[in-house]
Amino acid sequence: MKVAIATDHNGVNEKKELIKRINEIEFIDLSTDNTPIDDYPDFAFRVCKSVINKEVELGILMCGTGIGMSIAANKVKGIRCAHCSSIEQARLAREHNNANVLALSYKQDLNELEQMIKEFINTKPSTEERHIRRVNKIINYEEGTYNEL
Of residues 81, 83, 96, 131, which has the active-site annotation? Predict the structure, then answer.
């Protein structure tokens, strides 16, 4: 499995360490050109573009809080980015919401970040009708075909 990963100037060392630790995944690092004044939306858009273009299966984003990255990512059509702060949230984001991008705060414990990423990557989206129905409503709204408002 290929997974795109990026961070802004916050979390560069943590990102590198996570790539080393989770060596069963092929990470594509899309933020090798960080600078002290870079902007998180640029990296969020890079990762999301690689997911949308099917260059990778999933995306991982990190910044100071993970919030800015998740906001930027969710502006990209076809992206369902979940900002998570626990292993359970990472699992449920994939399982119930079929999230394709995970946004994290680099400030969390490195072991927790590792476990959240692994949980996100290894969890399959639910095949339960209620979860599929709900995700399809989001997709339909994004495409302008949701008529239940």
Answer: 96
